[in-house]
Design a protein that fits this description.
With 604 residues, the protein is α/β, with parallel strands linked by helices. 31% of the residues lie in helices and 12% in strands. It has one domain: Alkaline Phosphatase, subunit A (3-Layer(aba) Sandwich). The longest helix is centred in the middle third of the chain and has 34 residues.
Length: 604
């Protein structure tokens, strides 16, 4: 009896293991024959899923709050040698777009569907979500993620860094875990579930439990973990490819980095943000990143000319940018560690890499004067007091003690060169246009080339699937899937002149919204009706309604010339199209910053 009990445990354990590995197959009808006895039956054993023959590994890298013109790779002056190398041996996409803020971008990226379609019109945070289909912050099971799809097609799947898509109510060790990374297709996860975290004292999670950070910078920790996942998988010699989602908290606030990375930039930004923008703009033209006849936009409203600042302001603001630059270069270095490891194990040539440099435009959350350690929803100080307060703590910028460090708005626009405005501005290219690098030695023949086809984060999932030869599934674990809404970019890999296939795209973030169609774009810059100290943290607009603007991006890519009065019929046509998309994709009812702030006040 003891032997039989032990045998039963072994058999049941083996059955459980097979079931866990082949969960999707168990949902399919049994293909054999069940008779009264084994001799009259036909058995069909479950089998391990295999990826398509020769399918490469896939690495998705998503940075946070970077800005279009920050990296050297896209004309900036901040050193990013890893990104340079990937782009010089791959493709640079200069007309690629995000949703305009982090959680919506990440939800769209992961699912290949618009962010309101997958319920992430705002955030997974309670205060930044609402009880409507487009805003409840809960990605539904009928919108399977890239990790779920690839795992069911023979891939191992890993994620490290920022996830940002788990509802606050679920983000404890009690779960439920169906909206943690493990519940959305990842075999392993190491990082944080929220939107931002301290880089030295992160709210750290490993698999399905919070763990104690070891005191090192988070970038260092997630890189070690990513390499360990790959090493362990390769040691198993399973022949399976892997998918790695590498998503550091960088360069989202808090800007924290060791002085060995920030100090080399001392004095590099003393000329200020106006000169920075001019220099980057010239570099972008030289690289062919922007049109040769492009014109640099004016400074955003309320941004002072650098030469009008006091000596103390210049000293303070330059240090903020030195730290940010060091933070970005350090992040590039950590990405380089992953790339170099793949090269060491002879897997780099067999790895398809996508790098999205930012989940939105550069951050406008640092106030006009920058933040050293004041909380996001804290009451801002008057300008003179804020400058004095920050100057007293200038040596803490970037260090663990300066937990909320974020640069001032002048540097945010500079990092967004050649565009106007910034993160959260869904109406503006400055809020939504981010660089994309595609690298795959076996498949990218035109090394270092530029691509100008219109793209959006919902396109990366179908691009990946098409290149791997994997069909978007009709069902995942027995749940019927909604159609993928993105458009594959594979058609453009080998053809620089191919016409864009992604021809229409809406945008909406907390009131600001836009619609793109065939090179034309109409945008509405939302102005909150609530005027208070809290909102001043976010907004630099004047109090009057900015209204709708119309741009022909084919001739005016950085939105300098508003054509709304010249072409009212085109504007009306695009507004009607936005309305149709808003109904189709769950954008209504509009959930705005007014609504968010009212909720904040109601909680007090």
């Amino acid at each position: 009896m003891k032997y039989l009990a032990t045998l039963a445990i072994i058999v049941l354990s083996g059955t459980t293991a097979v079931w866990a590995q082949n969960y999707s197959q168990q949902q399919q009808p049994f293909q054999g024959v069940v008779g009264n006895t084994v001799s009259t039956s036909k058995e069909v054993r479950p089998h391990n899923i295999k990826a398509p023959q020769g399918a490469p590994n896939v690495v998705w890298i998503l940075l946070d709050d970077v800005g279009f013109g920050a990296t050297n790779t896209f004309g900036g002056v901040i050193n990013t040698p890893t990104f340079d190398n990937l782009a010089n041996n791959g493709l640079r996409y200069t007309n690629f777009h995000t949703a305009g803020i982090c959680a919506p971008t990440r939800a769209a990226l992961m699912t290949g569907r618009n962010h309101h379609s997958v319920h992430m019109g705002g955030f997974a945070h309670t205060i930044l979500s609402a009880g409507f289909p487009g805003y409840d912050g809960r990605i539904p099971s009928n919108a399977g993620t890239i990790a779920e799809i690839l795992r069911e097609n023979g891939y191992n799947t890993f994620a490290v860094g920022k996830y940002g898509l788990t509802p606050d109510e679920d983000a404890t060790d009690a779960g439920p875990f169906d909206r943690w990374p493990s519940g959305k297709g990842f075999d392993h996860f190491f990082g944080f579930l929220g939107s931002q975290t301290d880089q030295y004292k992160p709210d750290l999670v490993e698999e399905n439990a919070h763990v104690k950070p070891d005191g090192r910078h988070l970038n260092d920790q997630i890189t070690d973990k990513a390499i360990s996942y790959i090493a362990r998988q390769q040691a198993a010699k399973s022949g399976k490819p892997f998918f790695l989602y590498y998503s550091p908290g960088a360069t989202h606030a808090p800007h924290q980095v060791a002085t060995e990375w920030s100090d080399p930039y001392k004095g590099k930004f003393d000329k200020g943000w106006d000169v920075f923008r001019e220099e980057v703009f010239a570099r972008q033209k030289k690289l062919g990143i922007i049109p040769a006849n492009a014109v640099l936009p004016e400074r955003n409203p309320n941004i002072k000319a650098w030469n009008s600042l006091t000596a103390d302001e210049k000293k303070l603001y330059a240090r903020f940018m030195e730290v940010y630059a060091g933070y970005l270069t350090y992040t590039d270095h950590e990405v380089g560690r992953v790339i170099n490891y793949l090269k060491e194990i002879n897997q780099l040539d067999n790895t398809l890499v996508f790098v999205v440099i930012g989940d939105n435009g550069a951050s406008k959350e640092g106030t006009l004067n920058g933040d050293v350690d004041r909380a996001l929803f804290g009451k801002p100080l008057p300008e003179d007091e804020n400058i004095k307060y920050n100057l007293a703590k200038i040596d803490l910028i970037g260090k663990p003690e300066g937990t909320e460090a974020n640069y001032p708005l002048g540097w945010a626009q500079a990092a967004n060169t050649p565009f106007k405005f910034w993160k959260q501005d869904a109406n503006s290219e400055g809020g939504t246009r981010n660089p994309l690098i595609v690298f795959y030695p076996k498949g990218i023949k035109e090394k270092g080339a530029i691509r100008t086809q219109y793209g959006h984060v919902i396109d990366l999932l179908p691009t990946t699937l098409e290149y791997l030869g994997i069909q978007a599934p009709q069902e995942i674990r027995g749940i019927k899937q909604d159609p993928i809404q993105g458009t594959s970019l594979v058609y453009s890999f080998a053809d620089a002149k191919a016409a864009s296939k992604h021809t229409e795209q809406y945008y909406y973030i907390f009131g600001s919204h836009a619609i793109y169609k065939d090179g034309w774009k109409a945008g509405f810059a939302f102005q909150p009706s609530i005027s208070n100290g809290l909102f001043n943290k976010f907004s630099i607009y004047k109090t009057e309604d900015e209204g709708w603007a119309l741009y022909n991006l084919n001739e005016d890519f950085n939105e300098r010339n508003d054509l709304a009065k010249k072409y009212p019929q085109k504007l009306a046509e695009l507004k009607a199209l936005f309305d149709a998309d808003a109904k189709k994709y769950n954008v209504y009812p509009f959930f705005t910053w007014d609504d968010v702030i009212n909720r904040v006040f109601s909680m007090k």
